[in-house]
């Protein structure tokens, strides 16, 4: 993100489209001066009072034309979102008017903000760290109330404080060990058992945090769950039943679904992207064959599989071939058509994939569908009990794993009787990863990647 903090930036901060109110935001050293060139405060109080809505008019100074009535609110530095001079101009939510206000501001000396530049400035000016910046964007894009709650807490600094606590304990350990190394003549006692206990507690804490990522990713991005099985086992009927609408065409004839269909459902605040696909088996048509190939690719990339079996028919070699093909994937076995006479040898099926959960349903009558929805969450995105913080980003998980790995190396050296200097060096390797996690250590590539996901006005 090539920019300078000496610039004053401007952008529309409300979503694209028509609305009752739209907001144009400016930030930078000339924010107030530029805003006064394009917005005239109504007499008899023409002065701008900080943090107070001041009524006035959007004005084109060249033509002296009044374009709209609205409010201006001024936030002096450092008491603003960016810790710079910030002005918000509230107008009617016409895209034409808002874009014209931006154009007038640029003509008066501002420049158009880059995506996420307001938040980037807040980060550079020390108002927030990178974890909080990510949480701000997560909150804006939240697809469930649960995720919004988590993102708001992290925006307020909950995860940052947790990582700061880990860092503080690591620094305390290093101080103790390095003080003994620096002053060997001083009788400073180090209890290896106590050091080991602190390391184990930190490793356990970081392990639980890293383990929360699977649930966090499900909340942030949603889960992709593919429904697969042989032809005519009731996949599309199950798909429609879970959606509670007739989305996929259902007929008694095999091979009705020749491509895949994707729709979303919400289950306990988690977005699940359901995919119905062509039945696996011998294709009767080139289009169906292509659908099977596409289905296999989707299944391989999915977070979980619902393997549907027709419980009213005998198991077949194709059933076992399907289970073997996706042996390494997370899956649930769904014995469908429980409203009919049960013929399938369930034990034989379950013996072929030990440890895999299963459920008996009737997609036609709706039997056990609520239980199936809950099992999908428990299997593909298990919720952690009493988990205070949840990681929502792979970047965060990778760095937490790195911190944990450094501490594990230090603990192993301690238990193997290595010298205190080697133990200290291993523990010290955790600190750069903490710095990258919070953004204390800056990486331009990472910063560009994070802030490019923001909208322009945030």
TrEMBL record:
Sequence ranges assigned to domain TrmE-type G in this UniProt record: 222-381
Cofactor binding comment, as recorded: Binds 1 potassium ion per subunit.
Cofactor(s) this protein cannot do without: K(+)
Residues annotated as binding Mg(2+): 236, 257
Entry's localization field: Cytoplasm
Binding site for (6S)-5-formyl-5,6,7,8-tetrahydrofolate: 25, 88, 127, 458
Free-text function comment from the UniProt entry: Exhibits a very high intrinsic GTPase hydrolysis rate. Involved in the addition of a carboxymethylaminomethyl (cmnm) group at the wobble position (U34) of certain tRNAs, forming tRNA-cmnm(5)s(2)U34.
Assembly behavior: Homodimer. Heterotetramer of two MnmE and two MnmG subunits.
The protein, known as: tRNA modification GTPase MnmE
Organism this protein belongs to: Candidatus Saccharicenans subterraneus
């Amino acid at each position: 993100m090539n920019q300078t903090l000496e610039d004053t930036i401007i952008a529309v901060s409300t979503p694209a489209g028509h609305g009752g109110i739209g907001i144009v935001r400016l930030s930078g050293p000339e924010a107030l001066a530029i805003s006064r060139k394009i917005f005239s405060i109504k007499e008899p109080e023409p002065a701008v009072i900080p943090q107070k809505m001041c009524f006035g008019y959007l004005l084109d100074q060249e033509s002296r034309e009044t374009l709209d009535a609205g409010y201006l609110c001024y936030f002096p530095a450092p008491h603003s979102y960016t810790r710079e001079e910030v002005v918000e101009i509230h107008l009617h939510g016409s895209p034409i008017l808002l874009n014209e206000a931006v154009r007038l501001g640029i003509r008066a000396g501002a420049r158009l903000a880059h995506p996420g530049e307001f938040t980037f400035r807040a980060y550079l000016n020390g108002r927030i760290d990178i974890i909080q910046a990510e949480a701000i964007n997560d909150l804006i894009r939240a697809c469930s109330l649960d995720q919004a709650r988590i993102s708001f807490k992290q925006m307020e600094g909950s995860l940052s404080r947790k990582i700061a606590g880990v860092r503080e304990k690591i620094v305390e350990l290093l101080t103790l060990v390095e003080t003994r190394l620096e002053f060997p003549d001083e009788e400073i006692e180090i209890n290896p058992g106590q050091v080991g206990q602190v390391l184990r507690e930190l490793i356990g804490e970081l392990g639980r945090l890293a383990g929360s990522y699977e649930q966090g990713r499900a909340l942030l991005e949603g889960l992709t769950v593919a429904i697969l099985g042989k032809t005519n086992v009731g996949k599309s009927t199950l798909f429609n039943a879970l959606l509670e609408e007739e989305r996929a065409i259902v007929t008694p004839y095999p091979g009705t679904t020749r491509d895949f269909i994707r729709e979303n459902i919400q289950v306990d605040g988690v977005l699940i992207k359901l995919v119905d696909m062509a039945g696996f088996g011998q294709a009767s048509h080139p289009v169906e064959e292509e659908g099977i190939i596409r289905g296999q690719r989707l299944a391989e990339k999915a977070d979980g599989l619902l393997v549907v079996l027709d419980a009213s028919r005998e198991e077949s070699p194709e059933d076992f071939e399907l289970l073997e093909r996706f042996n390494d994937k997370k899956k649930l076995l769904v014995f469908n058509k429980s409203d009919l006479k049960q013929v399938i040898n369930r034990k034989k099926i379950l013996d072929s994939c030990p440890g895999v959960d299963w459920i008996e349903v009737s997609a036609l009558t709706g039997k056990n569908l609520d239980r199936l929805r809950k099992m999908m969450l428990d299997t593909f995105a298990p919720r952690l009990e009493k988990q205070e913080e949840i990681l929502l980003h792979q970047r965060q998980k990778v760095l937490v794993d790195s911190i944990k790995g450094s501490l594990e190396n230090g603990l192993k050296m301690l238990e193997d009787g290595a010298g205190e200097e080697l133990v200290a060096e291993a523990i010290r390797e955790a600190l750069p990863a903490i710095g990258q996690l919070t953004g204390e250590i800056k990486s331009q590539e990472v910063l560009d990647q994070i802030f490019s996901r923001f909208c322009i006005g945030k």
